[in-house]
Each structure stands twice: as C-alpha cells, then as structure tokens.
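seq:
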Amino acid sequence: MTIVVANRQRARKINPRRLKEIAEMLLADLGIEAAELGITLVAAREMTLINETFLQHEGSTDVVTFDYTQEAGAGSPRPAGGAPRAARSALHGEIFICVDAAVSQSKTFRTTWQSEIVRYLVHGVLHLLGHDDRHAGARRRMKREENRRLARLSGKFSLAQIGGASKLRA
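struct:
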C-alpha cells in the first residue's frame, strides 16, 4: 500500500504522518487491500484552478478526487464519483483537499478544521469506491456512510493530531 501526503498550503500546520495513519486505518476498515493514493493539501487558490480546469466548476471547493484506475480510461485521470462499480480491494487515485475550506466549514458546522480535513479524506475515498453525490438519494447515502466512517476514525484517533508537526514527512 502506498499513500503519499503532500502539503502545498500554508494556512495551517499539518502532521502528514498522522494523516497518512488515518488514511491507512480508513482503507483497512473499508477492506482495501492495495492502494496507490495521493493526498494533496492545497489552498483555495490552487483548488480553484483544479476545480475550474478539470471539473469546469467556478471557484474553489472542499475536495476533488481523481480516479486513476484502468477503467478510468487509457491512463488519463477522470474526476471520481461516476457510475458505481463493483466492490474493490484496490484503489488508485488522488484526493485534493482544500485546507482553507476546512477552516471555513469548521466554523459553519462548529467542528474542528482537522475533523473537516478527515471528512474530506473519507469523502474522496468513498468517491474512489464509486459513491456518487450528484443526486439527492445517493448524496444522502454517501453522507450517512461518510458520517459513520468519520465517527469510527474519531473513536480511534485524536483528529486534532493532524495539526502541527509540519516538519514530519509521510
């Protein structure tokens, strides 16, 4: 299993090693036996560029996921979350997480920015597994699974520990 965490933002100090441990636990809980997963933490400016370039959506967003599996096409990335796929034991993708959005949303939802980052990680992984949030019913099912996975992770980890220790490398 290969999980690489890259921090390309400066809004908050991040402990990439702890975030990687949380991602490993999430994948293990989901029964994912093999993964090549990139987790990139970005600022709003970079997320706006990603969102507009690849999804043709205006402005920034909280999380964007790219699926790099063979079924995604001839080596070309595609935004994840399309048609549901059969259960997988392996993932190959990249999740871009906007730390600025996590900070903003944490105030709105009265949670911590660290918890929001883990929520976005869970959301991205669920997209790689074929979950979709484009339609109301599917969005509700995905949100329930997201909440369940986040609660499970927060029971095993102090999510606040992903903040700080920015000199650690995953």
